[in-house]
Write a structure and sequence with these properties.
With 656 residues, this protein is mostly beta strands. The protein has four helices and 46 strands. The strands form eleven sheets. Strands 29, 32, 35, 43, 44, 45 and 46 form a seven-stranded antiparallel sheet that branches. It has a six-stranded mixed sheet with strand order 11-12-19-18-14-16, with no helix packed on it. 37% of the residues are buried.
Length: 656
Amino acid sequence: MCTSAVRGLTLAFLVFAGCRQSSVKQVEPELGLGAPTLDFGVRKVGVEATASVELLARTQADVTLAATLAGDPDFVVSPPPSLAGLEVLPLSVRFTPVRTGPRSAVLTLTSNDPRNPSQTLTLSGVGAEPQLEVTAGCDAGASCTAVVTASPLAIDFGEEPLLRRLPLEVAALPFVTVRNTGEVPATVGAAVSGPHAMAFMPVTALPMELGPGASATLPLRFVPPQQASTPFTATLEVTSDAPATRTTRVALTGRARPNLPPRVCLNVSEVLPPGGLLVSYGAEADWAPLRAPPAGGYDFTTTRPIPPRAVITLSAHSPGPAQACTSDPEDGRILLTYQWTNVSWPAGAPAPALAGDQGPLLRLAAVATGDYVVRLEVRDAQGNASSTTARFRVEVRNDLVVQLSWSGDGGNQGADLDLHLVRPGGAPFGARSSGGAVVSDDVSGFTVSGALLDAGLSLDWGLPGSADDPRLNVDDSGDGPLVENVSLDGPANGCTASPCRYGVFVHAFRDARALAVAPACTVAGCLDGEACGCAADARCVADAAPRDGGASGAGHCRPAVDVEVRVFVRGAAVATLPVSPDALRLAAPCHLVHVADVDWPLGASDAGVVVRPVAMPTPRRFGWRPAGPAPSLACAPNTRLTLPAGQSPWFSEEPR
């Protein structure tokens, strides 16, 4: 007690404060539990899972505790014996389900917490086992050809070659699908056993783990180890930790076959007209109908317009995968060899030269109107061969087409001929007034590029406008296979009373052949350009053919040039001239030969077109030649409108 000797208010306050301090209480321990429950969910039987909740000392006082676990023995708890003041520790719980189904336990924690000396933690979980479903499949859409049986599980790979340099795409292989239909992960493995286990190889690496609801595809590849008449067999064993499907067996069968020949297909993929723009037929839509080679070969005669002298590209390789076209069933395009050859071409014309004839792309330029056929043979590394052909047509697709062809090879290099198409009522090299203009009667290489058009003449035939005017499509000179080609549409235009008669002429315009030795001959008792004692395949050409009078006297035997003229009506050949094979052989420059007349009926129909050949054409001279046996003989010469004063253009002369 406070004594009465204490004096003053200050002392009394101090004594009072001292009395209050003696009544303060000590801090009590308090245990906190992070959650009242701990649910492990679905867990795989026999596989341990760990989870935890927080234990915490809520005050600065130490907490001591003890634990009691009641319920299923699948749960194991190891609580700490104590917690220091304000310490937080995890309470770790291990759950290892020993069987399937729900599992539970209650953990009771007792502590020195005076307010809450006992707390509980409810533990729960579900034990489950994986469930595996095994199936086999083959995707025909990806070119898989195996046969799959569902019950019992089996895969028949069919026939495979001993050697395949280009392995099948994985998508084209048969496969086994494993699917985990359970709620816990599954471990899956696979192995091949049996007498020919090495012939069957899984593509996917195993073992693997599949989560709940997950699946995996195991492609299988069959490679025959040797050539044999009996099948190769083995068993694929799919193993798992799913109790109901510890081992699933799939029977495997395959057979060896000989190597197959390549599959060949091709396309006229590009056409480059002379002086025109490239036309491409190489898109997927163009190739789509060509991937299955026709039994009789390909026919492009109606689908690929090809004018004379166009450069044509034929391709054996379609775009897209290498297996599309052309390809070998085993090796794709690896080590394939190619050989293109000419099969047929228009009569009287030379075979076209083939560029790239030992590769997948072939280029050629066909000059003569008509059908061409080329053959492609493809061999694989084992020597197996397949072949197909391509037919295409070279033509000018106008109503009336006339073509002249001759060979400029060998001794005929430098023989320059011209084809002339003369309009009804006209004359070779002639012209007439029409509607205030002067119109040429004649279309040829000379009239289109030479003096007539230089003189301001036009080629406005038939109706006004250019739609029915004649066209010079090809004007050849030099060496090799040579062609002249003229055409027009609307041949009946301008004729009202009788059929239109068009004249067809051939003119020996220039002879620049380098003849080292030309036997002498004499033009006497015969005409210039006839045999006159020369060999059967030669003609006597006078050294001089003056402007006035006929050629006679000394000459030289020059090889005759065989000429062929063909007439086409709307793409169809209707006549080949001359009728007599020896009737049209030219050697004398300036000779003009009337080959035939073409009568075109009135109206739009071409049913009455008549070609009237001149059976034995008689050469007439048109123009003159300089004197002397020089190797180059030219008509006039080709001086156009630069003749001396007082002389008329030579092309205005009538043939003699």
